[in-house]
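dude i think i finally got it to work??
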Amino acid sequence: MAIILFAISLFGIMSALRMLIHFRSRALISSQHLTKIGTGSCALIIGVLFFCARDLICASFALMCVLFVMFFALWFFERRQIDALKKEVPGFLDRWILNMKLGKALSAARTAALQDLNARARSLLEPLFVSQNIPHCVHLILDEKVLPELLELNHSPHSALARLENAREWMRKSDDFRRKSGQAVRQTTIQAVVLLLLLIALAVFTVQRHGWRRNSDLVLASFVLSGLGIFTMRHLARKRRWNI
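look at this
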């Protein structure tokens, strides 16, 4: 049993390290936040396994919960950083358009606009204009309709200003749409969180009242089905495309 518990703890720590390496390679979360989250998660994994050493099923379930919380924390910090960087793009396009209207060339106006960005936003945008082999794919801080417009500027410099203005206008309409739909999204999120909290409270009550061994399959099945429902809902929401 001690060997199995050691294997579970090793699996948990290695999984935590792999998540840290993955998010570190994206260079969006600061090293300070990564260190705090990684240290706290490893300490929590060891503590949880120590208190659940007598029940391997409970230890495994607690380990998965810790890993899920760790992934959510890393995802939250990265998402917040991406949202902050996305707010830099409209100002960048405005400065680029203004510089071109003042008589600067396309590349000179772009370079001057890039200098006003912070280091992380500049490091994400500069490769788009330096490399000639950038695929038309999803970018971290650029919308999918803005990215092709920026990539085509060097091939049609005579219409560069019109393309930039069209991209900026589309971003303005997109921001207005997100603001208007944000209230409905928040209401749906609050409802999902309330239902999840009720499920957790009911699971805790069931385990305390009737024991883990008699109800472990029921509790695990309920969490699996709830997780599957949340994943399906998010997948359908991401797959749906609205016309703006």
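DSSP finds nine helices and no strands in the chain.
im so relieved honestly
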